[in-house]
Each structure stands twice: as structure tokens, then as C-alpha cells.
Predict the 3D structure of the following.
Amino acid sequence: MGWAPEHPLAMSNGLVLEHRRVAYNKYGAGTQTCNWCNVELEWSAVEVDHLDWTRTNNRSDNLVTSCQKCNLGRRSPKEEAAAKQTSAKLNEQSDKLTALIKRLNR
Ligand SMILES: [Zn+2]
């Protein structure tokens, strides 16, 4: 984060978030598109997404522009694994219930 009150992406306190500054240098001024759904975005609506999920990795090749919906909807590998586990558990319970119902219906 740096003090750059003249920067187009400066916040009201004059600071520019490092990942936004790097992404702005990469993509330039003007209308952007979401890296994931291609919706058009003004910089004020752009969220800068870290491809490798490491918030401190602000190398330009790690940063893409994203709309809020895609940025929030993207799961990290950790979240993805947790979701898979939950889904496997639910399937297991569902199989048990199905077996139980079959037995009761006999
Ligand atoms: Zn999007």
C-alpha cells in the first residue's frame, strides 16, 4: 500500500492498495472486463483477484480483474476440498437413508 493521492485508484485517504496499483499498471485506464465472465467494468467496480490465492503475491502475472460476483464466487483450493468432503458425507448419508427406506418398505 502506498501514498499516491493523484493515482486514479487512490482511496479517499490518499492510499492505493498495492495489488490494485499493480493491476492498473498491467491493464491500463478505461473499461475493464472480468477475467472470468467477461462482463465490462469500470475501475471503481473492479475487484483485483489473486490467481494463486496468495494475497501478498502482487506480481502482475498473479493479478486479474474480476467483477464482485466472480471474485466472491471463486473457491480457494481449501474451500473446494472442504466442499467436496461435505458433498461426500451427504452422499453417504443419502445412501444410508435410501437403504433404510428400502428395508422399511419390504
Ligand atoms: Zn465476473
